[in-house]
């Protein structure tokens, strides 16, 4: 018996081309075999889309999975691209489809100029283009950012106002789920943040990682922005849907900024909050060797006796990772603690 091929000598069809723009190509495939998907996923056919590298003349995988559709983004306008489909059976045999060639369209001249005007903060040109009426104010650039997102991120307050008064949607999100407010908070542009809030942007929006504007502001570390956000009623201990981290946890993990941590704690952030794995800000700060932050957290009442889900405490973590200074901090702190009486 010869080894069983997926479909004897039947090559898969090349991917079918859907919508094509100046920076994206939509591909579909396997339109006739939909009904075969029974049982667990590992028994399904797996699909990969491969794109040719025109210089090297070899193919690289740009998508793999069980979906039957993929949008290729970030492409150049008026350029020819070549794709093929690889179908792999559960037992590991695979077949390639014939190649399909697709050219992206010309960039609509207006949208290219529009985004260029925004990038270089050219107010007059932007107004002229908008008055010309040939460009939609929310047309994304090739990275999926609207003009408002770019202006918000760069702190071009006047452009932000022009775009909002021309009807841009302040709540649109880019490919990673970030809206203009998150981008402005991370970059530290307080004027833009205030303006977006006045025009309908929400503190509750989440990106694809489940993070809110305050998580991004904590990463950006711009205290005036964080301070204003808190005064504006932003939730201080908002939890991301990925790791179960509050903004204080982000600081412990990423920047270790004492200033940002103090602001959050003064506003009521819980120093002993636990994430999905039972880790606390103190543990994370110890693991990341943020000495000043460890000191601050201890001063603000962080519980140094707490254990993670493997029964390991902060001292053990500091020892294992050889965090000498943090270790002496913790040891010092332990000596000062009043002995707990054994009467419960």
Per-chain topology:
Layout lengths: L15 E5 L4 E4 L17 E8 L4 E8 L3 E4 L7 E9 L5 E3 L3 E4 L5 H11 L3 H10 L14 H8 L2 H9 L14 H8 L2 H9 L14 H8 L2 H9 L15 H7 L4 H9 L14 H7 L3 H9 L14 H7 L3 H13 L8
Antiparallel strand pairs: 1-2, 2-5, 3-4, 3-6, 6-7, 6-8
Helix pairs in contact: 1-2, 1-3, 3-4, 3-5, 5-6, 5-7, 7-9, 8-10, 9-10, 9-11, 11-12, 12-14, 13-14
Structure characterization notes:
ANK repeats lie at residues 143-175, 176-208, 209-241, 243-276, 277-309. The chain has helices at 109-119, 123-132, 147-154, 157-165, 180-187, 190-198, 213-220, 223-231, 247-253, 258-266, 281-287, 291-299, 314-320, 324-336, and strands spanning 16-20, 25-28, 46-53, 58-65, 69-72, 80-88, 94-96, 100-103. It has 344 residues and is α+β, with helices and mostly antiparallel strands. It has 3 domains: 16-103, Immunoglobulins (Immunoglobulin-like, Sandwich), CATH 2.60.40.10; 108-201, Ankyrin repeat-containing domain (Serine Threonine Protein Phosphatase 5, Tetratricopeptide repeat, Alpha Horseshoe); 203-336, Ankyrin repeat-containing domain (Serine Threonine Protein Phosphatase 5, Tetratricopeptide repeat, Alpha Horseshoe). Strands 3, 4, 6, 7 and 8 form a 5-stranded antiparallel beta sheet that branches. A 3-stranded antiparallel beta sheet has the order 1-2-5, with no helix packed on it. The longest helix has 13 residues, at 324-336. It is flat. It starts with 15 loop residues before the first strand and ends in an 8-residue tail after the last helix. The relative contact order is 0.06. The model is unreliable at 1-8 (pLDDT under 50).
